Amino acid sequence: MKNTFLDFEQPIAELEGKIEELRFVQDDSAVDISEEIARLEKKSQSLTKDIYAKLTSWQICQVARHAQRPYTLDYLGRIFTDFHELHGDRSFADDRAIVGGLARLNGQTVMVIGHQKGRDTKEKILRNFGMPRPEGYRKALRLMKLAEKFEIPVFTFVDTPGAYPGIDAEERGQSEAIGRNLYELADLKTPVIVTIIGEGGSGGALAIAVGDVVQMLQYSTYSVISPEGCASILWKSAARAADAAEAMGITAARLKSLGLIDRVVPEPLGGAHRDHAAMAQNLKKALQESLRQVSALSTQELLDARFQRLMAYGRTKEQPVT
Amino acid sequence: MNWLNKLLPPKIKRAEPGAARRSALPEGLWSKCPACEAVLYATDLATTFNVCPKCAHHNRLGARERIDLLLDAAGRFEIGAEVLPVDPLRFKDSRRYPERLRDATESSGETDSLVVMQGAIRSQPAVVAAFEFGFMGGSMGSVLGERFVRGVQAAVEHRIPFICVTASGGARMQESLFSLMQMAKTTAALTRLAQVKQPFISILTDPTMGGVSASFAFVGDIVIAEPGALIGFAGPRVIEQTVRQKLPEGFQRSEFLIEKGAIDMIVDRRELKDRLADLLALLQKAPAAA
């Protein structure tokens, strides 16, 4: 797959273009230029390293939304085995913006639930750009309750711009569906391990993101509103999205330092989209470690810890009332 | 007010009924109903708790007036007033977050967007939490979450019902992810109330949107809405931009919600206390009020 470069990656793109040209020339050339190619490849790598070491929040947002970024089903194929997708909410429809089902992680039964975006136009529409409707959240809840019944750990993968803001979604109770999941997840009697793999968009993300461990991929984002939305409300201009992204603190590193997430999963050089296999390997390692960590607790300990964690969210000060 | 007074914590000891009535009422003796344009006496509006006597339009009601409406006058005390906002992200858009907080405090007389009080509804003990829309649009930040949780904890401890009256545009962007997490925090607290089998009654008023709508608002054992309130997940403008079509008349209003099966009932504000007292007595299998 040919890499699509983002705006701020243009220097890398130019270099990679040159390398491509040289490779083409080399095929029917008597002169050996492989050394030159190797030199340029090294340069491209170090350039990528430099650029990625200094990404702004807004640039990270672009990486998180990259068209080639691995999605839930990509990880399902690489990390888990025996995946059996389970469909539908049993009352209205099967929302394709959320996928879920039974699978194995190193042989152990697990439940996997995640947002799913589409690659090409047709699939994007099928998946509604990863924006679930109420039936998607209700399917997710059904699978969570199924996992609880059989004491199966749940892995969720979060990657959504947000819950779908449509007429039909409102009619079927988008608010209730999200709120219900928050309520049920707070007390779900089985381990829940959450990974933000791309965009963690607001309530639509949170509805499957309450758990015992919350981890984020290095270049994923998690925020209460999209930078564009925040900018258009507070700056009165969506063009100030970069400022909003910076002000809100939406990156994995920032949220880790604020104590809002537990772990940052490193991405391959140049982002997860450059190397799906390597990313899946890193993620698998993190999932295993997190699972080991929560498996050591009894159900009661697990639920107590989850509740304490939820109650601790927020920053306030106290002052006696005069 | 001199600079010294500004630094002092605002006086929020106003638990006695009626004392805060002035804040949400329009200035002057007369006001005009935004729905039917009838010219009304401010004093008339105060006796109907901001419901237009001519057309029954429900104007917004401040948190303390709401508590005056619902709780008996005797034996109330406030919960969580000592919890105050901070600026964890040093957030700045066109203005700094602490400046916005200061302005909101000055204009609303509150220190944040939720007032919680323990008391009684027709002699039945309960905790009531009421949103103050006049404080940054009733937005949900860390203080709101913490006060809400303390209110629920008090209800759990005393084995009494918890009632929340919402009026909010949603999350408080200036607290970013801290704000989002309040959705999970507030909703999770209610699982403990359920464990002691005490009711949570959710009363949705105009407007109840976004993160407040999509967290605890719809997990009430009983969900009540005031007439004509705008209630929904996404704002009408966002939906219009997404679906590129005009929204149907009355979309996301209480009357639309009850038709879609999203809420239990629509109750006129002037009957709210009686209905609430009845429902609480029924749920707790107490005898009917005389």
UniProtKB/TrEMBL annotation, chain A:
Its EC number is 2.1.3.15. Residues 39-293 form the CoA carboxyltransferase C-terminal domain. GO terms for cellular component: acetyl-CoA carboxylase complex. Signal peptide: none annotated. It catalyses: N(6)-carboxybiotinyl-L-lysyl-[protein] + acetyl-CoA = N(6)-biotinyl-L-lysyl-[protein] + malonyl-CoA. The keyword Lipid metabolism applies. InterPro entries: Acetyl_CoA_COase_a_su, ClpP/crotonase-like_dom_sf, COA_CT_C. Pathway: Lipid metabolism; malonyl-CoA biosynthesis; malonyl-CoA from acetyl-CoA: step 1/1. GO terms for biological process: fatty acid biosynthetic process; malonyl-CoA biosynthetic process. Its main location: cytoplasm. Pfam families: ACCA. The keyword Nucleotide-binding applies. Acetyl-CoA carboxylase is a heterohexamer composed of biotin carboxyl carrier protein (AccB), biotin carboxylase (AccC) and two subunits each of ACCase subunit alpha (AccA) and ACCase subunit beta (AccD). Belongs to the AccA family. This is Acetyl-coenzyme A carboxylase carboxyl transferase subunit alpha.
From TrEMBL, chain B:
It comes from Rhodocyclus tenuis. GO terms for biological process: fatty acid biosynthetic process; malonyl-CoA biosynthetic process. Belongs to the AccD/PCCB family. It holds the Pfam family Carboxyl_trans. Residues 29-290 form the CoA carboxyltransferase N-terminal domain. This is Acetyl-coenzyme A carboxylase carboxyl transferase subunit beta. It catalyses: N(6)-carboxybiotinyl-L-lysyl-[protein] + acetyl-CoA = N(6)-biotinyl-L-lysyl-[protein] + malonyl-CoA. One of its GO terms (cellular component) is acetate CoA-transferase complex. Component of the acetyl coenzyme A carboxylase (ACC) complex. Biotin carboxylase (BC) catalyzes the carboxylation of biotin on its carrier protein (BCCP) and then the CO(2) group is transferred by the transcarboxylase to acetyl-CoA to form malonyl-CoA. GO terms for molecular function: acetyl-CoA carboxylase activity; ATP binding; carboxyl- or carbamoyltransferase activity; zinc ion binding.
